[in-house]
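Hi R.,

Here's the chain you asked about this morning:
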Amino acid sequence: MSSTDPRRIRTDPTSPADLAEALRATGYLADEGLATAAYLALRMNRPLFCEGEPGTGKTALAQAMAEVLGAELIRLQCHEGIDASQALYDWDFPRQLLHLRALEAAAGVSEDRLDAEAVEASLYDPRFLIARPVLRALQTTPSVLLVDEVDRADDEFEAFLLEVLTEHAVTIPEIGEVRAKHPPLVVLTSNRTREVHDALKRRCLYLWLDHPDLNREIAILRSRLPGLPERLAAQVASAVRKMRQMDLLKPPGVAESLDWAQALQLLGARELDMDAAAASLGAVLKYREDADRVRAQLDAVMA
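And here is the predicted structure, written out as tokens:
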């Protein structure tokens, strides 16, 4: 199915409540504030800047929005040193070289006798263009562009993003301007390892995501893991909340809660007991120091 096939559009939310219901159908449980922010980003055609601790559902929101809209999810994972070329495009040099050799063979002449202008035009043809995430998102309808962990990039990359998000277009010197016919929904996430500049934030709608409260986390567990006993879901959610208050190196997020609950379910547990908890801590804690600290206080965590 092509990226422009209208059958990809699953729903067109008409209100925050409508969007919350559509997100719930994907397994993502959104509160009123989150659903409102996401709905406004969609209707105002503004990027949604999601900030919060790791594991609070920022990336999962972009994935759920793509599913709701029937759109392609295109992810740009930011990292230290990322630059515009890694986000935009590259040229397929090996294929260009093969093309040049084919031209030489067909003409029966050496490279220096070929029409330089014609050769250059054929080399920088869109078929040799490798579209990176930002360019792909501009060319794809519908699409959701997830700019993940933008706080790991530098100021120069932020400025580049700001320009693209403002214009919904990029210029490729050899080809010209590429402008989105229908701008993608853009979701930027930040774990707040550093402050993102105000200029970029001003272009976006802002959403702070906290860990869910106890009842909502229980609901998330039971929604994503059909058949999970209610008592086990409540015990897992309660234990994870206590772990988050223990000053761990990596407090568990919702993803770890889900992994732990699934691991316990696969082990046949109907409720959380000391043996099952100790045996499966690797599903919820990712550092030895954290696991040792929790094991030493397992009674309190499970109380």
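One quick note: The first helix runs from residue 16 to 26.

Cheers,
M.
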